[in-house]
Specification:
three-stranded mixed beta sheet
Length: 312
């Protein structure tokens, strides 16, 4: 007697409680589906039996239903699906189950393996999922074998944040193939469009030029005020003494210093404006082209400026 025949008599009765206290609606539905599958199987209506058993399996995954569904799939020559269900039953069957039932499950698995191959995927990162050209529904990559129909199949392994890996394998009936997949992280997308000039040089040049211009104006005005003060000191000195001369000269020196620094600030502002014009006009070229221009700030203890590199 096959397991599907004994399933309702033996395994199914063990897996599904029969006491009134356990008569839950879902269990009643599973019982009804499996009873219908039993009748269809015995009548040779294997497709109908498979449909009912699959509905029961979707509701409740147990050893008895896995074995019953696997036997139906054997009749329909769906060997890799049968092997998957028998494998589930083999690894899940209760250790206290009778040796005869365990042996029957082992024998059925070996029978299904004759028409199906298996693959084991070793991925370089955990938490991957995979699909195959024969089984398009995604599955989680584990260390357990996955049974597939024999032939050349395409396998795709995916994980968020990594590039999808595709490879072709040949699945051999009755054999197991180990597939090693190395996933590569995806490069983060740059917010800057290819070929677009970065904005920081524009901000830097405009800021430096504006600050230098304002500072130059302030220093120039200050130097004129200081010059007027120096003249007032010289005029107020009567008689003109060495101390008065020294004070007046110091005021004139301060005025000259402020004026020189102010002119320097005007020069820096002009250089910044020139650099900004060059950058906006030429720096939009692709960085790999020979006409590309690079701007680098050059700051030191006694000087500051911008280094412009490129072909003009």
């Amino acid at each position: 007697m096959s397991i599907i025949n004994r399933g309702l008599v033996c395994i199914l009765l063990i897996a599904l409680p029969t006491g009134r206290a356990y008569a839950q609606p879902a269990e009643d539905a599973v019982r009804s589906l499996m009873a219908g599958a039993q009748g269809d199987y015995e009548a040779g209506r294997y497709a109908d039996a498979e449909q009912k058993a699959e509905k029961a399996w979707a509701t409740r995954q147990t050893v008895d239903i896995a074995v019953a569904l696997g036997e139906i799939e054997l009749k329909l020559a769906k060997y890799h699906e049968a092997a998957q269900h028998f494998f589930y039953a083999q690894k899940t069957v209760n250790v206290t189950e009778s040796p005869d039932i365990k042996k029957r499950i082992d024998d059925l698995l070996e029978q299904a393996k004759k028409g199906a191959g298996a693959i084991v995927i070793n991925a370089s990162v955990p938490g991957c999922a995979f699909t195959t050209s024969a089984t398009p529904e995604p599955r989680t990559v584990t260390a357990e074998p996955v049974f597939l129909p024999p032939g050349k199949l395409t396998i795709e392994v995916v994980k968020e944040g990594y590039k999808k890996e595709s490879l072709t394998v040949t699945v051999i009936a009755g054999d197991q193939t180990v597939v090693t997949v190395k996933l590569v992280e995806e490069q983060k997308k740059d917010d800057t469009e290819p070929g677009a000039a970065p904005i920081w040089p524009t901000i830097l040049l405009a800021s430096v030029g504006g600050a230098a211009l304002v500072t130059g104006i302030g220093l120039t005005v200050g130097s004129r005020v200081q010059y007027a003060d120096a003249e007032a000191i010289a005029t107020a000195c009567a008689p003109f003494t060495r101390a008065c001369e020294a004070e007046s000269q110091a005021a004139f020196d301060d005025s000259a210093l402020l004026q020189n620094v102010g002119f320097g600030m005007f020069g820096l502002a002009a250089a910044s404006a020139l650099g900004l014009g060059l950058y906006l006009g030429l720096a939009s070229a692709d960085a790999a082209s020979p006409t590309a221009i690079r701007f680098s700030p050059q700051l030191g203890a006694n000087a500051g400026g911008i280094l412009i590199q490129g072909a003009f």
